[in-house]
Design brief:
The mean pLDDT is 96. Strand 4, helix 7 (165-174) and strand 5 (177-181) form a beta-alpha-beta unit. The chain has helices at 18-33, 50-57, 62-80, 85-96, 109-118, 142-151, 165-174, 188-193, 205-209, and strands at residues 5-8, 100-104, 127-129, 158-162, 177-181, 198-200. The chain is α/β, with parallel strands linked by helices. It has two domains: 5-16 and 82-208, 3-Layer(aba) Sandwich (Rossmann fold); 17-80, DNA polymerase, domain 1 (Orthogonal Bundle), CATH 1.10.150. It has a six-stranded parallel sheet, sandwiched between helices.
């Protein structure tokens, strides 16, 4: 059975916010905890909800850190957000060929939409399942199951594309196929351990899978 629905993680997959996220963590942790982190201190946690990651650094101050992170992140969002050259071309081809597409992200809806609109990508996606839309988040299956419900899509015809093990495990738990992107900033062995069905080197390779 062919793929008729493709779900995408947002940060690090559709848009490149790696530098934005790292700088937001660095600023927040230095301000509240008084030390400077390295990128590798936070990149393994990319893809999980922000409060969970902040609790890894401080159980006492995480709520204050959450406010600081969000203020810094939103203020600097557009400056640091980039896009890979192959993304828009691939989305346009899938859209023209009738593939249903959705975003499944642990990001808040407001910022998810903002990131898409910078590059005029919102028009390609029928649904956006964001942090607010489910009680349980990746790697739990709930976000993908919500997207399938909204799209009236079949699990057997769905592919989830992401840059973190949380995306791959979410797909596996939801009973859909998964593709890990090779351009992830995370150590790739973390994604391999999650056992994706496919590995892609660029966005256009999704068309071969379809």
């Amino acid at each position: 059975m062919g793929i008729k629905t493709v779900l995408f993680d947002l940060d690090g997959t559709i848009i490149d916010t790696n530098e934005l996220i790292i700088e937001s963590f660095k600023y927040t942790i230095e301000r509240h905890l008084g030390y400077i982190i390295k990128p590798e201190d936070v990149t393994p946690y990319f893809g999980e909800p922000l409060p969970i990651t902040l609790k890894r650094f401080s159980q006492d101050k995480w709520e204050l850190m959450l406010d600081t992170y969000r203020q810094y992140n939103e203020f600097n969002h557009d400056k640091y957000t980039k896009i890979r050259k192959d993304v828009k071309e691939a989305l346009e081809l899938m859209y023209k060929n009738g593939i249903k597409m959705g975003i499944v992200t642990s990001k808040r809806r407001e910022l998810a939409i903002r990131g898409l609109r910078i590059f005029d990508l919102e028009k390609y996606f029928k649904v956006i399942v964001a942090l607010e839309d489910t009680e349980k988040h990746k790697p739990n299956p709930d976000p993908i199951l919500k997207a399938l419900e909204l799209l009236n899509a079949n699990k057997e015809e769905t592919l989830m594309v992401g840059d973190s093990p949380y995306d791959i495990l979410c797909a596996s738990n939801a009973g859909v196929k998964s593709a890990a992107v090779k351009w992830t900033i995370l150590p790739f062995n973390l994604l391999e351990e999650a056992k994706p069905d496919y590995v892609i080197n660029n966005m256009l390779e999704i068309l071969k899978i379809i």
